Amino acid sequence: MSKYSINITNTAKHELREIVDYYFSNLENPLLAVKVLRKINETFDAIATFPEGYQIYEGKTTEKLRSTRVMHYRIFYKIDNIEHLVSIIHIIYAKRNLDELL
To answer: Rounded CA gap, 53 and 34, in Å?
Structure first.
């Protein structure tokens, strides 16, 4: 089974930058910023390997999204089996109101 390509949307890129900036700037903890970024990137790789291995999000969104949790964050993505592509839609702090944000 070959890996799917990963496309990170501009929204998800922005959210990822905000996460890393939060650890660097607000918490002044660059080691934790690097750890969070590494864990998220490892999860992207796992999603690319087996995209249907994660739960379908049952929230109020009209899109068929899947999600997985990484530390304090939830990654939302959709799968295009024809193009063999996974699009990362959002990376959101897991304790936020997810339905409101999606």
So the answer is: 26
| pLDDT in the model for residue 96 | 62
Q: Tell me the C-alpha distance between 23 and 42, whole Å.
A: 18
Domain range for residue 43? 5-94
In tens, the pLDDT along 22-52 reads 998 888 888 999 999 999 999 999 999 999 9
Give the relative orientation of helices 30-49 and 10-21 as an angle to the nearest 10 degrees. 150
To which residue do tokens 């590494």 refer?
A: 38
Residue 38, class by beta-carbon neighbours within 10 Å (0-12 exposed, 13-18 middle, 19+ buried)?
Answer: exposed
The pTM of this model reads 0.87
Total domain count, the chain: 1
- The whole-number pLDDT of residue 22 equals 92
Residue 61: count of CB within 10 angstroms of its CB: 14
